[in-house]
Write a structure and sequence with these properties.
Layout lengths: L10 H13 L10 H13 L3 E5 L2 H10 L7 E5 L5 H8 L3 E5 L10 H7 L4 E4 L11 H11 L2 E5 L7 E2 L2 E2 L6 E5 L12 E5 L4 H11 L4 E5 L2 E4 L10 H31 L17 E4 L3 H10 L24 H9 E4 L7 H14 L1
Parallel strand pairs: 2-3, 2-4, 4-5, 5-8
Antiparallel strand pairs: 1-9, 6-7, 8-9, 10-11, 12-13
Bound molecules: pyridoxal-5'-phosphate.
Length: 358
């Protein structure tokens, strides 16, 4: 079976896990400092003010919104995303306001953001879908004129660039995921990159909130002033992350090359565009009879996925809103394998069977 996603694992990753294992210090507090080192290196990579590592993209989003008072306030977001993109707003007492996406990028449509702004809006939550950069120029303009925070969901976007800069250096808070299927893979992991004049204060808050609210640690003494969670990154993840970070640009280049070939050789009109700045975490196409298409590919040894069922159609979020583009794409979207381990023959096979059955 050609896998839909697959991490790139070398001998150095195996050695690094073994080293952490043998050190017997696996948690970040008592560990060999791999988490701290990863934060420093990632900060340099994206060129941001502060980076705080956590144990998932979900934790990153939950904590990022804890920095702003969003209680009973509205946050504007797309519906075509993983469920954590919406849960983080509810978790922090906010109200998710779903708006439609652009049909070519599947990223949030800035015009729809403008229409959704009310006196209660406090933030915009764009998702760089599949690694495609959102129109941050427009989104930043809107945010500035209405005094809104931008919290970016960059779970798919390690290595994505916008205006010549890496994603992570633009929004107020930018949240990454290092889930094993992501471009920078760990067993579990996430990170919040902060670009805000209060980044030092935010850093202290996030340090404490990612570990149960614990502050003022001196020897065995500590204090707790507020609620916190067990969200810290472990040393195994950080050790792997350091190695993955070194090669992520090279691996993204391979993804881009595959995406270009898919774009040129797949005979479907509605498919992911080619963009040199995209990290291509996934590659999507639209097909009319999705179930039949996916079955045919599966029978021929090609795994596919559906990313995603729109969030506003889930029972918890069901509302009377209509998002025609999101709903239409949600019915037809299929993701096909794109990862750096694909062999040339596998790429040819994917193109052939997609063209045969779409
Ligand atoms: C768009 C998006 N946001 C957030 C997340 C959550 O990340 P994690 O799985 O690391 O919690 C994911 C993960 O799949 C995602 O795809």
């Amino acid at each position: 079976m050609i896998k839909l996603f697959e991490p790139h694992v070398g001998i150095e990753e195996i050695k690094s896990v073994e080293n952490v294992l043998k050190s017997k210090f696996w948690a970040s507090g008592a560990g060999a400092g791999k988490v701290l080192e990863f934060e420093k290196k990632f900060k340099k990579y994206v060129k941001s003010n502060t980076c705080i590592a956590v144990n998932s993209g979900t934790a990153a989003l939950n904590l990022a919104f804890s920095l702003f008072d969003i209680k009973n306030k509205e946050v504007i977001l797309p519906s075509l995303s993983f469920i954590s993109t919406a849960h983080c707003i509810v978790e922090n007492g906010g109200i998710p306001i779903f708006v439609d996406i652009e049909p070519d990028t599947l990223c949030i449509d800035p015009e729809k953001i403008k229409q959704a702004i009310s006196k209660d809006t406090t933030a915009i939550l764009p998702v760089h879908f599949g690694g495609m950069p959102c129109n941050l120029n427009e989104i930043r303009k809107i945010a500035k004129s209405h005094n809104l925070h931008i919290v970016e969901d960059a779970a798919h976007a390690v290595g994505t660039e916008f205006n010549g800069k890496k994603i992570g250096s633009h929004g107020t808070a930018v949240c990454f995921s290092f889930h094993p299927v992501k471009n920078l893979a760990m067993p579990t992991g996430g990170l919040i990159s902060i670009n805000h004049k209060n980044h030092e204060k935010f850093k202290q808050l996030l340090f404490s909130r990612r570990w149960c609210g614990i502050t003022n640690r001196r020897e065995t003494d500590y204090d707790v002033k507020e609620l916190g969670w067990n969200y810290y990154m472990n040393e195994f993840s950080a050790a792997l992350g350091l190695l993955q970070l070194k090669k992520v640009d090279k691996l993204n280049k391979i993804r881009r090359k595959i995406a270009k070939k898919f774009y040129n050789e797949i005979n479907i009109k509605s498919k992911m565009q080619f963009n040199e700045n995209c990290s291509y975490h996934l590659y999507w196409i639209l097909v009319k009879n999705r179930q039949k298409f996916r079955q045919k590919l599966h029978k021929n040894g090609i795994e596919t996925g559906t990313h995603y069922k729109p969030i506003h159609l889930m029972k918890m979020y069901k509302d009377n809103i209509s998002l025609p583009i999101t709903e239409s794409i949600g019915r037809q979207i299929v993701t096909i394998p794109i990862h750096p381990n694909l062999k040339k023959s596998e790429i040819e096979k994917i193109i052939k069977f997609v063209n045969n059955y779409a």
